[in-house]
Amino acid sequence: MTDLFLTHQDALAGLDPAFIKENPEFVEAYGNINLKDIGALNTVLKSVDQLLKKYATPNDKIKNTVEIIFRQILSRYPLLFGYWKRFTAIEYQFHGLETSLKTLENATESFPHSVDLWCDYLKVLIVNYPKESELIKRKIDKAKELVGWQFYSHPFWDLILDYYLKTETDVIQLYHELISIPLHQYAKYITAFKKLLTERKLTEDIKKVDAMGKQNQIMVNQIWRFESLIKQNYFNLTPLPPSEVENWINYTQFLTKTYCDKPQLIRSVFQRSLIPCCFVEKIWVRYLTWNQSIDTTKDLSKLDDLIQLYEKGCRTLPKTTHEFRWMFIDRLEKSYASNEKAGKVLIFTSFCKCIKNMIEIWPYRQDQIKSMETYLRMLKISKYYSSLDTPSKQLISQQTTYSKYLETCINNFISDRVDHSIVLEDLINERNLAVVVVELIRTTWLVLKKTLQTRKYFNHFSKHPSLRTSVDFWAIYYNFEKSTKNFVRLNSFVSGLGTDLLLPTSFINDIINDYKIFYLLNSNITEYQTGKIGPTSSHNSESAVILDPILEIGFKINNPKWTRKISNNGRINKIDAYKNSQYKENGHPGIVSDTPQITNSIIQRRSKSFKNILPGLPTFRNLEKINQIGNYRDYYSEDILNSKQ
Amino acid sequence: MKTIIQEILRAQLRGGTITEYSSVRSNVYRMSYHQYNNGHYQRNTGYNNNNNNNYQQRNNGYGYQNGYQDHNNRSNNYGQRDTYPSRERGATRTHHINDNIVRSTNQLYMGDLDLSWTEDTIKEIWKTLGEESIRVKMMMNNIMNNNNTRFSGGNTTTNSDNTKNQGYCFIEFSTNEQAANALLKNGMNIPIFPQRRLKLNWGSGGNSNNNNSNSNNNNYNNAKPTDESNMSSNDTNYSVFVGDLAPNVTESQLYELFNDKYPSMIERTRVMIDRVTGVSKGYGFVKFINAAIQSRAMIELQGAYLNGRAIKINSTGQRQQSQPQYSTDPKSIGNGNDNKYPNKNNKHHNKINKLSLFMLPVQQLPRMNHMTDPNNTTLYITKISPYVNELELEEYFKPFGSYYDKLRIFAPEEDDGDTNNNRPSSKSYYQQGIIQYVNRYDAERAMVALHQYAIDDIPLQLSWGLPVDDDKLKIKQQDIQLQAQPSYPNDIYSYV
């Protein structure tokens, strides 16, 4: 949280307006600060330098501003050792020795694998506090462990040798240690050591040293193949060329194969590689895989170290990397059972932290679901553990409390009363809610066998919007209704797929294919006839069209939006259909369907009925229809051309 | 009308059926149709009345054949022309090149060339054959292809090499005799390239003929036969360019289309075939026997449908050169064969313009891009919910068919440190994706089924797209380095 606060803090906030007016370049440089661009950072640094030249004795406000700027940059990129050095110098200028030493110490903690920073720190310590020999010794030992095995660590060794000579400590032991390390300048130390030994007339040791020197030479030659290819051994913001990464990988691969008896060397190379390649997931994975392989003891401190290392990786690696974080989770899960109580607590805590982190940084639903599933699995193992010899009564009560716990968490989330001190409640969000709900339903239905309760849950949760799009939830719902053979509900569920429940196409296809077979195998004619009506619960019959499970649901395959058109819409009204001229013409527009008729026909009339009077002239009906022009209905323009407008 | 009623009565008395009635009525219809058409004809051909009574009388009974009026009109003109048999002799109207006429040139066509040969290569070949003073015009593969890129689609072979020739060239000899001599070498093995044979013919460039001279004469409104020299001096080719052909149009189809409209006026048709793929290049040429038909066809058949596609007719370069000689005398523009009726020329010209009012509209085909390409199978998906990754989205698109590579999602451009990514209003909230199906059918089905299909209550938007290069993604990969490092929870949960 402090980091976040720092990065969003405006360093210029406390400055006088007059000062801001006088130094537009500095303000502009800070305004253009872009943590992605090393050029912009360097511009800021330059403008700070100019500022300090201009104001030889800056006031507190300026000092504060400069410090904030440096902290902002260095908290984001602690591996920029040049910035640390500059910051130390500035601190010295501002506040004197004490503060600058403190800064250097901070630097060695934030960036512990830098030979440069350690040398600076030790130098300052030795020069200014020669009496604190105990502290110096401690620091030297620490530095030796951290940077002593680095290929280019000779300045550091020179420094210690110098110090030892000054304090008249015996250096034989140190030399013995030193000559077995493959250093860039290994020969220098061997010569010096041999000289020292001849002075002391320890001829036997010289032979040993010679032998070790030879061995060391071979090693250095082998290492040099890789070391010579390293072009950039410092951290920079511009992306590293792939060949460099490749080289580091080859280098560590070679070492882990050939010199597995020298874990210190391998570790130091890994640590060095993680300076320029600190964003490269592959190297992190290799480092930790190797680390796990050499360390099989169940020591609590070792476990803690391992977790620390993993967490450091999680903090450093960008959000998009998944493998490393899952590797961490996997490791924790696997080592959980084999650890003692204290270790279990440690593992579970860091497991929760990591899951929480994953849920926060990964937006995608699939990652969320996977994380949540992993968490629930771990939760069951840690809190509701059951082995084969657990009595069944206890088992049931355990599962009941588990489901109770889940239900409380879900309900708290839905009703927006989240208690962030409870991990599960803290972890639930819209996207992984379904996982918890499915787990609850699964436990209730399959473990506790409470069918009624399960149905209640389904009714309750199916209205929640984030569950409506969940494949898991509807899959278990489908299975549940299948097990109860409730065809009315199944029909309505299947009919709603794609129109009401917008689920993935492949899922809908699978459900429909499965349901078609299931229906034919298990249904009967009564079910079929009643099934089309739909459940009584659905209020508006218009939106809920129940599809025919035999004839119609197949249309939904690969066309999820398919739905039957509401009947009598666009169809011929059956009562008046025969009166329609189109019906009568039957596809032949213009054909005479209303035949002309003589209304006062004399045919079949008895001549007597004429009563000796001339019959009247014939009168006609439908005569005008003979010349009627056929009525062509242009369906094409009706349906296609006009509908486009 | 009285007769109809009588017939109906008679039918009624016979107990007639509907069909009989209808047959009666159809008779009525036909009659009125006759009348209608006749009237129509009268109106339409009004401008023809005073100058061609004979024609009108002949056609009166067949008024409904109004559509063939041009045809009849012309055949009539033939009739007129036939009264001058001496002049027409020799100009047989067939659709292949008339040898007698062509041989008056000194240009040869040379085909079956290697595509990499240049003009210099051809000269070299003829040098070895003893012909030194020749000029070669190599047909290169550049101009037409530009007109034609849309038909080639993904087929790059037609576009790729502008440097290659079209496989034939024209060779101009200094005299006609030399050309005729050279033609005798047809079929001979080429000395430098023994695997190839010479393929020679008379060049089409010098194809002046009698009809041509006719049209020349029209300008002066005299019907005198012209001498040979006049004919050969006018070196004109009455061809038109026909573009936008459907790929399956054959030369004979093209010939039929033009020949139906102007019988016996077509000398030859040609559809350009890509030598590499053997597929039509989508354009061709039609050669007429005279300029009048050429100019009429350019107007009248513009946009006619051939195999479901409107053709486009354009002049070739040579046509335009011969244009000025018509424009000098506006009266004479039009049908050269009407020279017997000089006073009608103007009318005829009007007719062409009138007809042009009824011509089929030239359908403007839209420009070829990813939206209009009928073979595009790439779908561009926008408004993807930010919570969906590639694997999940594939579940939506997978069932429709197989696709290349995999579905790809481009994460929205991340503004550094900004938290406004979580607002649906900001553009970067949604993701975009691309999927390239193997089959167009699958892509279309997916588009129909999934457009506006909501994921997380956000309707997807689909449109046709283009495959995206990996470059864009690679840059994204590099950006990973610069991403803000994730914050990691520091606090330990209290209850543990």
TrEMBL record, chain A:
<keyword id="KW-0507">mRNA processing</keyword>
<keyword id="KW-0677">Repeat</keyword>
<keyword id="KW-0508">mRNA splicing</keyword>
<dbReference type="InterPro" id="IPR003107">
    <property type="entry name" value="HAT"/>
</dbReference>
<dbReference type="GO" id="GO:0030627">
    <property type="term" value="F:pre-mRNA 5'-splice site binding"/>
</dbReference>
<dbReference type="Pfam" id="PF23240">
    <property type="entry name" value="HAT_PRP39_N"/>
</dbReference>
<dbReference type="GO" id="GO:0005685">
    <property type="term" value="C:U1 snRNP"/>
</dbReference>
<dbReference type="GO" id="GO:0000395">
    <property type="term" value="P:mRNA 5'-splice site recognition"/>
</dbReference>
<dbReference type="GO" id="GO:0000243">
    <property type="term" value="C:commitment complex"/>
</dbReference>
<dbReference type="GO" id="GO:0071004">
    <property type="term" value="C:U2-type prespliceosome"/>
</dbReference>
<dbReference type="Pfam" id="PF23241">
    <property type="entry name" value="HAT_PRP39_C"/>
</dbReference>
<protein>
    <submittedName>
        <fullName>Similar to Saccharomyces cerevisiae YML046W PRP39 U1 snRNP protein involved in splicing, contains multiple tetriatricopeptide repeats</fullName>
    </submittedName>
</protein>
<dbReference type="InterPro" id="IPR059164">
    <property type="entry name" value="HAT_PRP39_C"/>
</dbReference>
<keyword id="KW-0539">Nucleus</keyword>
<dbReference type="InterPro" id="IPR011990">
    <property type="entry name" value="TPR-like_helical_dom_sf"/>
</dbReference>
<comment type="similarity">
    <text>Belongs to the PRP39 family.</text>
</comment>
TrEMBL record, chain B:
<feature type="domain" description="RRM">
    <location>
        <begin position="238"/>
        <end position="318"/>
    </location>
</feature>
<keyword id="KW-0694">RNA-binding</keyword>
<feature type="region of interest" description="Disordered">
    <location>
        <begin position="315"/>
        <end position="347"/>
    </location>
</feature>
<dbReference type="GO" id="GO:0003729">
    <property type="term" value="F:mRNA binding"/>
</dbReference>
<dbReference type="InterPro" id="IPR000504">
    <property type="entry name" value="RRM_dom"/>
</dbReference>
<dbReference type="InterPro" id="IPR050825">
    <property type="entry name" value="RBM42_RBP45_47-like"/>
</dbReference>
<feature type="compositionally biased region" description="Low complexity">
    <location>
        <begin position="207"/>
        <end position="222"/>
    </location>
</feature>
<feature type="domain" description="RRM">
    <location>
        <begin position="106"/>
        <end position="205"/>
    </location>
</feature>
<dbReference type="GO" id="GO:0005829">
    <property type="term" value="C:cytosol"/>
</dbReference>
<dbReference type="GO" id="GO:0006376">
    <property type="term" value="P:mRNA splice site recognition"/>
</dbReference>
<feature type="region of interest" description="Disordered">
    <location>
        <begin position="40"/>
        <end position="89"/>
    </location>
</feature>
<feature type="compositionally biased region" description="Low complexity">
    <location>
        <begin position="335"/>
        <end position="344"/>
    </location>
</feature>
<feature type="region of interest" description="Disordered">
    <location>
        <begin position="203"/>
        <end position="235"/>
    </location>
</feature>
<protein>
    <submittedName>
        <fullName>Similar to Saccharomyces cerevisiae YHR086W NAM8 RNA binding protein, component of the U1 snRNP protein</fullName>
    </submittedName>
</protein>
<dbReference type="Pfam" id="PF00076">
    <property type="entry name" value="RRM_1"/>
</dbReference>
<dbReference type="InterPro" id="IPR012677">
    <property type="entry name" value="Nucleotide-bd_a/b_plait_sf"/>
</dbReference>
<dbReference type="InterPro" id="IPR035979">
    <property type="entry name" value="RBD_domain_sf"/>
</dbReference>
<keyword id="KW-0677">Repeat</keyword>
<feature type="compositionally biased region" description="Polar residues">
    <location>
        <begin position="315"/>
        <end position="330"/>
    </location>
</feature>
<feature type="compositionally biased region" description="Low complexity">
    <location>
        <begin position="41"/>
        <end position="69"/>
    </location>
</feature>
